Input
Amino acid sequence: MSTARVRGIDLHYEAHGSGSSCLVVAHGALGSVRHAEEFGLRASELATHGFRVITYDARGHGRSGYSLLPEHYRPASLADDMLGLIDVLGLERVCLYGTSMGASTALMLAHAHPERVIRLVLRAPSPFGVDIDAARARLYPLASMYRWLGASVTPHVVGMLSHAQERHALKALLGSQRRRAIVPAIRGFLSEPIDPENLATIQAPTLILTHPDDPLHPLRSGEILRAHMPCASLLVAPSRSYWQQNRETLVQVVVASLRGQVVAGAA
Output
């Protein structure tokens, strides 16, 4: 297990491949390196296309250390963690792939340190504006459940309320959390929404991957980003589960974007 000391905690990371181009991958809230492939991303397969791929567990997630203050989990703070990891690994300029919370992290890093970011792929970006209220309404009660019921009972309660086909994977994901870490993490990353008006300065070529029918990752988020980012294109999947069900296609799309190629369907 590899760790890097960053801003007072140890971040767990894994490295794949040895290509000259480096891609740093940031997962979503409640996720981790361990669960990344369940949501469609195959870091080891990306590495076979000539990239050095760095995946890591964000603060409070997976095998990384954690802090107890929600402000340490705001997008700008998580971006500082990402930059710290990049610095520790001796990387100068990188490409970024972020999902949900990880997309917000990548955005904030590209905004604050544009000289360090070559290209961006943002999958299922988090909500902006009024849409964030719907996300808070779903996730803040989950944080309260963790706080009062703990990490062993919460997955069973949520599992009983979920669809049968999602129950096993959802319980495994929720059961892998640590109560002291995940409560401030959930409350923190939604507490300070990103202002899309600030993103117009990001010049890195960006591919946004989104999908319909998902209140936690609304299609409108992708449209907002495309409207505000001068070098962004948007690719809308036909369904919420499309990328999980078509993992090889996801890898092909990401690789094409990172190589500067035209991605079919993106506009």
